[in-house]
Amino acid sequence: MRTYPIPFNEEARLRAVFSVPGLREENTKVFDAICEATRHLLDCPIAHISVVEDDTQWYKSVVGIELSRMPKNNSFCAHTIMSGEPMIVPDLSKDPRFEAHPMVAEGGPGARYYAGVPLVLSSGQRFGSLCGLDLVPHEAPSDQAITILTDLGKAVVAALEGAPPSFADTGEDVTGKTTFITLVGHELRTPLTILFGSIKLLEATAEGGVNKLVLSSARKSAKHLIDLVETIITYSDVSTGELRLNEQACKLNELLDDTAGLILPNADGVLKSASVDSNSVDIPLYVDADQIKLALNALLLNAINHGGENITLKGNIDASDNIEISITDDGKLDEKVELAALYEPFVVGGNIENRSTRGGLGLGLPLTRKLVELHGGEFEVIAADNHTSAVIRLPAWRMKADQLK
């Protein structure tokens, strides 16, 4: 399993990376000078300017060690580019995200200290980092040192893009939320609030039976949609297509129970529900709960619309100690569905004309894949003769919520 997350806007990010004229593997002295300054600033023996591509990472400049192009599984900078903030790790071996990392674990070079800033193009896309590394732990650098490191990172970008550096105020940009997001948020909030209130009123006055259950499911779905809209407004950037995670501690079974509690009609109007497997493990998670619930709801809806009669949710720990969440139905995947196409960018499981009323694939699966990859996980659909399973795998470190808060 991979050891790094994938940005939600990865395709757009890569297009921006490949379009920078100065971003070639040939080096010039200015970048070596910036790395030397970084090494002295952080009191580290190693510093480099990394470029993170789709499957690999390479270096515009490296001082203090010989490094060649390497797979992203060996990259710390793949984590750094996930936000616009510096990533400081005083001791990599004590951070749950990196304790099993091939550069940290026994048998590797024994990296311990990492301090890096993301390198942000004028388009807003992040392509790599400027960082210092050491084989022994360090105290976190001072605020002043981080500010200087950030300015050095801006100098790297300016040299690549051929423009003079601009060392702007590092305070919060209150104009970051675009007019588009603000307007769309307002237009969504008002009808959703009315819808949520109306459903609550109907639920309170409804008698028991099917109507009560359906209204309860509708209320939960409306509340989740309201929370999701707020999350998107707060944690997205319409100018770059980026979506950031709002990570928090939660319980896996609570997420599964919320999803299984939905009773929804399929395409034929028949009510269907799901259950949580009695052997499902209850473990703590450190995830964006809203985004994981969105993924689970999409998978459940696909199973309801395209799957069999019986739908089961289960949480498990796989043989590699990673978290495995599955939604399984007893339907058979239609042979016309191009399963491999699910994993291609912007593809929704093959030709939409081949969509069947059975089988478990639907339009929500590419979005689910991107949300799972944003968490550093993997997603696949497993088709057997007597069932179809949609499986989310998350890295083991996401169980260590207490250490990651």
The parts where pLDDT drops under 50 for at least 5 residues are 168-177, 345-363
**Strand residues, percent:** 15-25%
Give the CATH class of the largest domain.
Alpha Beta
- What is the rounded Rg? 23 Å
Structural class: alpha+beta
Indicate the mean pLDDT.
Answer: 83
Q: What is the terminal separation in angstroms?
A: 24 Å
Number of strands: 17
Major beta sheet, specifics?
Answer: 6 strands, antiparallel
CATH fold topology of the largest domain: Heat Shock Protein 90
What is the number of independent domains?
3
Please estimate the helix content: 25-40%
Count of helical stretches? 10
CATH architecture of the largest domain: 2-Layer Sandwich
* Biggest sheet, spatial arrangement of strands: 3-2-1-6-5-4
CATH superfamily grouping of the largest domain = Histidine kinase-like ATPase, C-terminal domain
| Overall geometric form | elongated
Account of the 3D structure:
The chain has 405 residues and is of the alpha+beta class. It folds into 3 domains: 10-161, 2-Layer Sandwich (Beta-Lactamase); 177-244, no CATH class; 246-404, Histidine kinase-like ATPase, C-terminal domain (Heat Shock Protein 90). The protein has helices at 10-18, 29-42, 77-80, 143-161, 179-205, 210-235, 252-260, 289-306, 365-374, 401-404, and strands spanning 46-52, 56-63, 70-71, 87-89, 113-120, 126-134, 236-237, 242-243, 248-251, 264-265, 271-272, 275-276, 284-287, 311-317, 323-329, 378-383, 388-394. A 6-stranded antiparallel sheet has the order 3-2-1-6-5-4. Helix 2 packs antiparallel against helix 4 and helix 8 (289-306) runs antiparallel to helix 9 (365-374). The longest helix is centred in the middle third of the chain and has 27 residues, at 179-205. The two termini are 24 Å apart. The model is unreliable at 168-177 and 345-363 (pLDDT under 50).
